[in-house]
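Reminder: ligand-aware prediction takes two inputs, not one.
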Amino acid sequence: MTKINKNFSNLGENYLFAEIARRVNEFKVKNPGRELIRLGIGDVTLPLAPVVVEAMKKGCDELGVKETFKGYPDYEGYLFLREAVAGYYKRFGVKIGTEEIFISDGAKSDAGNIVDLFAPDNRVLVTDPVYPVYVDTNILSGREIVYADSNEDNGFAAMPGQTPPPDLIYLCSPNNPTGTAYTFGQLKAWVDYALENKAVILYDAAYEAFIEDEGKYPRSIFAVDGARRCAIEFASLSKTAGFTGTRCGYTVIPLELEADGMRLRDLWYRRQSTKFNGVSYPVQCAAAAVFSDEGLSQIRENIAYYKENAAIISGTVKRLGWEYTGGVNSPYIWFKCPGNTGSWEFFDTLLNSAGVVGTPGEGFGKNGKGWFRFTAFGSREATASAMNLLDNLYRSDTVRQK
Ligand code: PLP
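Here is what comes back for the chain with pyridoxal-5'-phosphate:
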């Protein structure tokens, strides 16, 4: 008789965005034809950069010609793309070897699949609030999870010191959902803690491209001394270059990183070659174009556009006098719901009174209770109208109360 993985029953009832979709659908049925502005799920809205599209087309053309046709790609990605990624790291002063880079279809898959490398009895630390993928993938493999609080007291930047120490540590900087980023000093404290306790840090750098103050906030954990002996880094072109639909990311595992006497880079190669057959050639061509001078300049324009949206959102939230984090080194603005409203209560008010959809902080963990997330990835028009609606709704409220 077939038996299922019993850990499925330990997962939370509904993936956060599925619950949001359910409430939005209910609203649409009750309010047919009413327009909605979506600043909830963090999907991008600007198209791919022209140089990226050209490279993808060229890749397709090559596949249509006998002499340049290609079959299965290398498991770890084509060398030309791994060289481009290594060159990108070099721009911000981090030296990575091409044999330490693995190309994939995105950071979600890699952050989820990495658990294959580790024994089920590892204790896993995640910061709370948290990107749900780290939690759910470990629940599915039956691991114990401990939570490090990110809250108002520590500026939504959980720090190490937990006893007993965990074996695996997930960090995300700039953070989804709080929009905060770790400074060099804060990240060094995590690296020292991991080295001291022989733990591995799983570092999600999906939003590194949004870091503005590079002197203060590292773009990569490998800019921190000692990280090569204790960290794995995930990165993605989804938010950096609008690849949410195109799909491409990369994971960096330094050669010297070992656990239990095994080189993790070699285990990952073994895992990938067993379960993954690589990313398509045209997509890898497109990804390599992102890291060219022209590509970087074109994607910077898109990032600047989203950052301006972030400034519009944080400007509104600030004017309304609400506490918030993020919005500068991140596409997320994380704010305290007004008047001690609960996250889901605020979600419903915003949806029903203004037709604006955001993300309730509570969906990311207990420290998200009473907090809310907006994304800056919407169009300028949508962002500006949503903020006008918010301003009208709450400023007039304040005025009425006076
Ligand atoms: N990591 C974080 C922190 C994210 O917020 C996201 C997407 O929202 C991802 C990873 C997923 O990235 P990808 O699209 O490359 O799978």
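The mean pLDDT is 95. DSSP finds twelve helices and 15 strands in the chain. We will return to this case in the review session.
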